Amino acid sequence: KARLPLAQFPKALAATAACCDRLVPTLDFLKGRPVRVVDGSALTLLADTQKNRAAYPPIQCPPNQPSFPMMRFVVLFSLLSGAILAAAQDSLAVSELSLLAQLTRQLGKGDILIGDRGFGGYPVIALLQHTLGVDFIGRTTRRIDGRRRLRRLGRNDWLLEWKKGNLPSPWMSPAQWQALPATLTLRAVKGSLYQKGFRVRQVIVVTTLLDPQAYPAQEVLGAYLRRWRLEMCLDDLKTTLHLESLRSRSPDMSQKELWMRLIAHNLVRCAMAQAAAEHPVPLERISFKGSLDSVRQFSLAMA
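Request: output the structure for the sequence above.
Response:
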């Protein structure tokens, strides 16, 4: 693993994600447009070496408490197959929004990005829509009042206007901040997403998909519900593939260890997509843990 160039790992990850997407039928909602999901998490580097501490400084802990180097990473999922398209990593001092900015080159014009509250701010949505031509669906930390709407589109469906703040965003360059529009017209959709085992039962999502005929409210809410299921992919990575901590003794090897787990996740996803295609069942019905156990049991026969 040490002899493999680090630059080859993102290429391998993208290739496995493309293979997985080809095995799954195209989406039958949101006009079949490519839908990406962004999410982030943090990892512990158990090898407490000087190099790891320099690249990934540990968080401040109370006296006499152990502290380890920490890595923050953000990934782009494909909503179609659940495969990981791209990833960016850095220390805990770098925000998830800064890592998302590094991944924007992986998004194409016409894509739709789904994110949680942490990504539903004015700078992110404005940058995606006006600079990249990417639409957004997600929740936001802003208070949304339906009584201050621009226009009512339907029941629990309305247009609203956001104004650009006075303070520039710290993760954007001054030129990027100045290029953002002074106002944004967004659509707010409120609805029930109750499913057994889910904590949230009713949500309000904001989106740049303003046409209620082309993008019905239920399709917007359904896309966000599927994003919740992809959050379990991070749990698959950290629990099933044991990515909650890294053991490499240098930053380069830690990054390679991270990339290898992401690639392994995509390869298991490919096996799941093949099984779903051969035995016509929804991909969501197939267990990641069960698929991984099957691959391990049959690995000797496959070899």
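The chain has a mean pLDDT of 89.
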